[in-house]
Design goal:
The complex is a heterodimer. Chain A is mainly α. Chain A has one domain. In chain A, 78% of the residues lie in helices and 0% in strands. In chain A, helix 2 packs antiparallel against helix 5 (106-136) and helix 4 packs antiparallel against helix 5 (106-136). The longest helix of chain A is centred in the C-terminal third of the chain and has 31 residues, at 106-136. By secondary structure, chain B is mainly α. Chain B has one domain (3-158). Helices cover 77% and strands 0% of the residues of chain B. Chain B has seven helices and no strands. In chain B, helix 3 packs across helix 7 and helix 4 (40-68) packs across helix 5 (72-85). The chains are: A mainly alpha, B mainly alpha. Chains A and B meet through helix 3 and helix 5 of A and helix 2 and helix 7 of B.
Amino acid sequence: MDNSEIQAPLLSAKTLKSIDLFLEDYYPKASEAGDRIAACKMDKTQVRGLENLIVSVTRFSEVINYIKNQVGKEREKNTWKEVGPILLSQLKDLESQANEIAGDHPLERLEVKLRLLRGWARQVVAHYLYKDREERG
Amino acid sequence: MTLNEYLKSAKFQAVQDEALRDAALRAAENILREHVAVKRHQLHAIPSIIQGAGLLGLREMAQKQKEKNSNSKNKAFWSAIDDLLSATSVSEVSLYRFLQTLLLESHFVESEETSADKNTQKQIRRRNKVIIEGVMDDILDVYFEHFNCHYFFKIQQGGSQ
């Protein structure tokens, strides 16, 4: 369904600060996800693919569905199976936090979720790249 | 707010992202609990049918599969899909019932209980069905995105295929 007419709200300075504060606190957990992705030697293109998707989605659940779909694929070596649970669990944390920050304001809640998602992805991918490089020496 | 405005609103976008997802997850889990999991390609057909022929196409396919598919697992699966879309479904996880409740709460459909007269109730039911099926046609792609991905995820987790 076309949602192009829905405008992103201007979030208040207080809301933006709440998002930043949460992401700062969440950094160790996001790093853990980055560690796991590096540990299972997921291909860099897969990680970049997820990152690109996160930048372009208009619905938070598109990312959840993408991860579930990847986990659910029949492959000989499916690294998504190893990291899917931690990524999905962290997405659940982000969604709960968005509900706490934005409460019963649907448009604001969607926007907060997407901002949390993008901030989280930057943390996860940056940490993955760092660990991946470290492990390769 | 008109129904069209509602369907384009942030409120409804949030419904698609949250409540509709929960409804699809419940339906997928319910089907997996009650029936043996089918092969992935059975579900792969759903998005393209929706894109090409919408609700009518999906319903036709589900009915055809439940009548003619020779595999009993597939037959049961398609029968459950048909039930999700049906106005006469008694299942608590049916998509029709989910939309009926949602649209009733938002006052876009009328409660049959507003009248004691059987004929009037029937007319209300018929009017509601047109509205609910119109909305269903609109959100079917998102609903089955949630449904399929969760189904794939669960069968991989349970390894029941």
